[in-house]
Write a structure and sequence with these properties.
The structure holds two protein chains of two kinds. By secondary structure, chain A is mainly alpha-helical. Chain A is built from five helices and no strands. Classes of the chains: A mainly alpha, B mainly alpha.
Chain lengths: ~190, ~140
């Protein structure tokens, strides 16, 4: 079966990642409200939407595609995910922490401190799932697809892991949305 | 698909990461108060032991695809050193100091090593040994 050629880590994407991370470093260094809020909101929204979309929309669709279509989608989507997900997570968490420091909401005296700690726990669980299961599966499926004779059972197993864990983190993102809405409105 | 028996590297790795996260939440939840570092140190020590145990268990696996493992893990390590460096920068920028800084910094070291181990393991476990290096895995 013919497979489209692809880079496991898109080189062009690395440039974009470098620019985004440079913006993050600058925002932390400057420590002004607007850039920190912007990066945290945009990163958090991207992380949430991607997780929910992957888990509940694209995942079920992927399972119903023909094998050639599935392979083509996977080889185009997964390399981008290798760069997108770690970047949005890093930006969201680093900017969010700095934002909390700036606003004083990370202090234990903050009246909604309990909600903030709840967000730490939810995000911590999501991070463990993403780092332990999601990202390794992402890389492994791409390496497998690069082989002269990829094993379809391995690919299926890894893609199922990827989609299911994306769905699980997506569901946890709902909890994050509830918490963040509460923290925003008070 | 038949698989040889492998140690529970992924499960141990996730438990190790969870312990680090728990330690970080413990410290963060009590800011700005100084809290006893003992619980965080215990969690960090357990996490580091799990990392060492994982590597030791993996080293005993016969015919493990170590070439593939290191081929993938070294690039992942580079990426996670960058991420850990950025997080460390945020700690320093926020004037985290003393024992808390030491514990958090060592936690970042365990984190930056263990995640590449998990990525390398997940890739290498499916390596049949006669597969050529994949193109495009390098930046």
């Amino acid at each position: 079966m013919e497979r489209p050629d692809f880079e496991i880590v898109p080189r062009v994407g690395l440039v974009i990642v470098a620019v985004v991370l440079a913006l993050l470093i600058a925002a932390i260094a400057v420590n002004e409200l607007w850039p920190l809020a912007f990066l945290h909101f945009v990163g958090g929204a991207a992380w949430t939407i991607i997780d929910l979309f992957l888990g509940f929309v694209l995942g079920p669709i992927l399972g119903r595609l023909s094998i050639p279509a599935r392979i083509e989608l996977t080889t185009r989507l997964m390399p981008k995910m290798v760069l997108i997900m770690p970047t949005v997570v890093t930006v969201t968490l680093a900017a969010g922490w700095q934002l909390g420091n700036h606003l004083g909401t990370v202090q234990s005296s903050y009246y909604l401190h309990g909600w903030l700690v709840a967000s730490y726990i939810v995000v911590g669980i999501m991070a463990v799932i993403a780092l332990g299961l999601l990202e390794p599966a992402n890389i492994a499926v791409l390496v497998e697809l690069k082989k002269p004779r990829p094993n379809p059972q391995v690919i299926e197993r890894l893609m199922k892991r990827f989609i299911y864990t994306a769905g699980a983190t997506g569901a946890m993102q709902v909890a994050t949305l509830v918490i963040m809405a509460k923290l925003t409105v008070g | 698909m038949s698989e040889r028996r492998l140690p529970p590297v992924t499960q141990m790795g996730m438990l190790s990461l969870a312990l680090i996260v728990a330690g970080g939440i413990y410290l963060a939840a009590h800011l700005p108060h100084q809290v006893p570092l003992t619980p965080a140190i215990i969690l960090l020590a357990c996490s580091a032991l799990l990392l060492a145990g994982n590597l030791a268990a993996l080293s005993r696996v016969k015919d493990f695809a170590w070439t593939r493992f290191f081929e993938v893990a070294r690039w992942a390590l580079l990426a996670y050193i960058v991420i850990a460096g950025m997080i460390e920068y945020a700690f320093l920028r926020d004037q985290v100091s003393g024992g808390a800084l030491v514990v958090l910094s060592l936690s970042l070291v365990v984190f930056a090593v263990h995640v590449p181990v998990l990525i390398g393991f997940t890739v290498a476990r499916y390596d049949t040994g006669d597969d050529p290096s994949p193109d495009g895995i390098h930046a």
